[in-house]
Amino acid sequence: MATPRPCPDGPCCPHPSAVLGVQQTLEEMDFERGIWSAALNGDLGRVKHLIQKAEDPSQPDSAGYTALHYASRNGHYAVCQFLLESGANCDAQTHGGATALHRASYCGHTEIARLLLSHGSNPRVVDDEGMTSLHKVSEERDEGKVLRFGHGVPDPRGWPSDWRRGPQEAVAHEKLKLEEEKKRKLERFSSSRVNLNNLADLENLVQRRREKRLRHRVPPKKPEPLVKLQPQAQVEPVGLEMFLKAAAENQESLIDKYLTDGGDPNAHDKLHRTALHWACLKGHSQLVNKLLAAGATVDARDLLDRTPVFWACRGGHLDILKQLLNQGAQVNARDKIWSTPLHVAVRTRHPDCLEHLIECGAHLNAQDKEGDTALHEAVQHGSYKAMKLLLLYGADLGVQNMASVTPAQLARDWQRGIREALQAHVAHPRTRC
Predict the structure, then answer these.
(1) Which structural domain range is residue 65 located in?
(2) In a domain, 168, yes or no
(3) What residue range is the signal peptide (predicted)?
């Protein structure tokens, strides 16, 4: 898979991003539970599951991106093939006018581009910058992968429409490049030699060398003028916005100034995020101790009802998680979608935090609004360590979610999806010897 680069029509992941750090809004939660996140991560089993639940394969997210855009951008061939066979609109455009073919072309996913073209994708569609998918190939690939456009579309560089360098041609091309480089070095060496046929040639050479030394001589530096130190200005009062930003950036001097001036350690922004939330997310252990000592509420809830324990688990900071639980934080707190810190530790792949939560009495079989337990989440995210820990501590394999699916059934769907992807890859003409 090609390394992702900035997308031609905006950020690669258009779902909401955090201000000052990582946060999860209701809109982002919809993205994670929808078909877009599954397509972005190449989770074919979950994509099939959502399509079977009457999910529209062409449904755009808040930024106008469909599941096919995400799968094409990240090179998930099997997901793209299934979405197209399920009726996904291959020419759906984002708010920036890009189609899935634009995304695949820009990132160099040749097979996906050919798959889209075979399903009728229009290579002449232009985005808001007036660029077609072929422009994207020419823009970012000097000797990159070239699409089979057909339809009489001319190639801007004059390449054949089905050109592709084979293994033997690639080796021969590399040898030719090495020979040309040796030839250039030899020519440079030959041109640098000086012919000294008489005394005048020697005098000219000495004069050129003297002039070259004079050109490269560094003049002495002038002494820098002494700068008088200005008296330090008095520190202005620290406002709420600066206080929360200082908590995220670990600026203890500003925190001390705010608290010394009588500021409320439980002050929050419009999303009810306190300084303790930010310090827990960013992993500032000393600052967490200082805020708790100043009277910060250990179970303060943000707009999504998430306590600092949730934020510590999301950041994967085991030391801060221990501090909070030692101060009496609730290990089984629930947010607005009934998720617990155990769910968050599994989703964010932090097995050390997961194990500590279990040892502190977290409910192994707690279910969120969709009926998913932490074991369901571990299977959906393919987290082997989390599954092993949960089963080791006695998680129930028979718990059904709202779709009447157990973790074991989810695992079987996942294995079937992997098998189908491999079979589709082996059956493709490109993989035959």
Answers:
(1) 26-140
(2) no
(3) none
Instruction: Flag whether pLDDT at 10 surpasses 60.
Output: no
What secondary structure does DSSP assign to 150-189, as a single string?
A: -TTPPPTT---TT----HHHHHHHHHHHHHHHHHHHHHHH
What are 218's two structure tokens?
């560094």
Q: Indicate if the pLDDT at residue 190 is higher than 80.
A: no
Give the separation between CA 72 and CA 313, rounded to whole angstroms.
31
Instruction: Summarize pLDDT for 353-386 with one digit per residue, the tens.
Output: 999 999 999 999 999 999 999 999 888 888 888 8
Do residues 124 and 257 both lie within one domain? no
In the predicted model, what is the mean pLDDT of residues 211-240? 68
Judge contact between 103 and 90, C-beta under 8 A: no
pLDDT digit string, tens, across residues 86-121:
889 989 998 888 898 888 888 888 889 889 999 888
Minimal CA–CA distance to 52: which of 397, 416, 382? 416
Strand partners, 274: 268
Give the span between the Cα atoms of 309 and 386, in whole angstroms. Answer: 18
Domain count, the chain: 2
Q: Which two tokens stand for residue 133?
A: 């998918």
pLDDT for residue 24 is more than 80: no
Of 140, 174, 190, the one marking the end of a domain is 140
Assess contact for 93 and 61: CB atoms under 8 A. Answer: no
